C-alpha cells in the first residue's frame, strides 16, 4: 500500500472531517479516563487501579498494582498492546499530577539513532520508552525481536522493575500504519499528544508564545515546570532606574505575574528576549544502551 498516495488523494474536506472526528473521540475517551481515575478505577478494564487480576492484562498494570511481579508481564507483552494507545495512557496519567513537567520528550535530547525516545514520571514510577531504527524494522538475524517492536524500562522508587531488554513488545498493525504514515507523509501526518503534551511543547514556537503569556511566578524553583531567563536591552543612553525595578519586583511577588511582563509595562521602549527551558524537576531521558 502506498501511504503517500493514500493521503494525497484525500480532499481537504475529508482531512478536516477526519481531524474533527479524531479530536472528538480523543476528548470522549479522555473524559472517560479522568472520570474513572477520580473513582480510583481504570477506564479500560473498570478494575480498581490498585487491583491486579492475572487473567485480565491491562495498561494499569504499569502502575504496579498490589501483587504484580515482572513475570506477569511475560505473556502480556509478547503480543501487541497498541503502542500509541499505551503512550496516551502513560501521558494522561502523568499529566494528571502536573501538566508537561513529568514528560521529557524533547527531541533535541533524543539519541539520533532512535525513532522515538522519552521518559515519563508518575508519582514514584518512571517509564522510559525506546524505539531504535533497527527496533522499528525488527532485527532479522536474532531469535528475539526479529519483528517491529519497542522497548520500555520501568522504575519504581528509582529501582529498575522492568529493564529495556526484558521485552520486545510487538507493534500492532495499527501502530505500523501510523508509523509508516509519519515516515512516508510527514507533512500530512503529525503525532499530536492530545491531553498528553510533554516538554517537547518548548520546541513548538506557537505554543511557546502562549506558554509565556500564561506563566506565573513561583518561589518553589526546584519544583517549577519551567525555568526562564530574560535579556533586557534599553535604547542607547537609557537605563532602568532602581526605584521602578524595585516596584516591579514587588508587584510580581504580589500578583504572580512574571517580572519581565511587568517591566514591559514600565519600560515599553526596551527589547526583551526570553528563553524558556525545562524546570529542574523534569526527569532526564533514560537512555537505552546495548547492555540495557
Features:
292 residues, 2 domains, six-stranded antiparallel sheet, 35% helix
Briefly, what is this?
This protein has two domains: 3-200, no CATH class; 206-278, no CATH class. Helices cover 35% and strands 17% of the residues. The chain is built from nine helices and eight strands.
Describe this structure as you would to a colleague.
With 292 residues, the protein is α+β, with helices and mostly antiparallel strands. The protein has 2 domains: 3-200, no CATH class; 206-278, no CATH class. 35% of the residues lie in helices and 17% in strands. The chain has helices at residues 3-8, 12-38, 73-76, 83-97, 133-137, 173-184, 205-214, 242-255, 259-266, and strands at 103-104, 114-122, 125-132, 149-156, 159-162, 169-170, 226-233, 271-278. The strands form 2 sheets. Strands 1, 2, 3, 4, 5 and 6 form a 6-stranded antiparallel sheet that branches. It has a two-stranded antiparallel sheet with strand order 7-8. Helix 8 packs across helix 9 (259-266). It is globular. The chain starts with a helix and ends in a 14-residue tail after the last strand.
Distance between the termini: 35 Å
Radius of gyration: 23 Å
> What is the count of structural domains?
2
List how many beta strands DSSP finds: 8
**Helix count, DSSP H or I runs of 4 or more residues:** 9
Helix content, binned percent = 25-40%
Structural class label: alpha+beta
Ranges where pLDDT stays below 50 over 5 or more residues in a row are none
- Main beta-sheet strand count, sense and barrel state: 6 strands, antiparallel
On the 0 to 100 scale, the average pLDDT is 94
Amino acid at each position: 500500500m502506498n501511504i503517500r498516495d493514500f493521503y494525497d488523494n484525500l480532499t481537504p474536506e475529508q482531512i478536516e472531517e477526519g481531524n474533527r472526528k479524531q479530536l472528538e473521540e480523543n476528548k470522549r475517551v479522555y473524559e472517560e479516563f479522568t472520570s474513572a481515575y477520580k473513582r480510583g478505577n481504570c477506564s479500560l478494564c473498570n478494575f480498581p487501579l490498585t487491583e491486579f487480576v492475572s487473567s485480565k492484562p491491562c495498561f494499569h498494570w504499569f502502575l504496579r498494582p498490589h501483587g504484580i511481579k515482572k513475570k506477569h508481564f511475560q505473556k502480556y507483552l509478547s503480543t501487541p498492546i497498541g503502542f500509541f494507545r499505551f503512550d496516551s495512557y502513560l501521558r494522561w496519567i502523568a499529566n494528571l499530577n502536573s501538566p508537561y513537567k513529568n514528560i521529557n520528550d524533547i527531541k533535541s535530547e533524543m539519541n539520533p539513532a532512535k525513532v522515538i525516545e522519552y521518559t515519563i514520571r508518575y508519582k514514584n514510577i518512571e517509564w522510559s520508552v525506546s524505539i531504535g531504527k533497527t527496533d522499528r524494522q525488527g532485527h532479522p538475524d536474532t531469535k528475539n525481536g526479529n519483528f517491529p517492536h519497542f522497548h520500555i524500562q520501568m522504575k519504581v522508587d528509582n529501582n529498575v522493575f522492568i529493564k529495556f531488554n526484558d521485552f520486545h513488545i510487538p507493534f500492532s498493525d495499527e501502530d505500523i500504519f501510523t508509523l509508516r504514515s509519519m515516515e512516508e507523509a510527514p507533512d500530512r501526518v503529525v503525532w499530536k499528544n492530545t491531553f498528553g503534551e510533554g516538554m517537547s511543547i518548548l520546541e513548538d514556537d506557537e505554543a511557546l508564545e502562549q506558554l509565556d503569556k500564561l506563566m506565573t511566578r513561583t518561589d518553589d524553583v526546584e519544583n517549577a515546570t519551567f525555568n526562564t531567563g530574560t535579556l533586557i536591552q534599553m535604547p542607547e543612553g537609557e537605563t532602568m532606574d532602581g526605584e521602578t525595578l524595585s516596584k516591579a519586583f514587588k508587584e510580581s511577588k504580589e500578583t504572580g505575574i512574571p517580572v519581565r511582563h511587568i517591566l514591559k509595562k514600565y519600560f515599553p521602549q526596551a527589547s526583551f528576549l526570553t528563553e524558556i527551558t525545562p524546570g529542574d524537576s523534569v526527569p532526564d531521558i533514560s537512555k537505552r544502551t546495548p547492555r540495557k
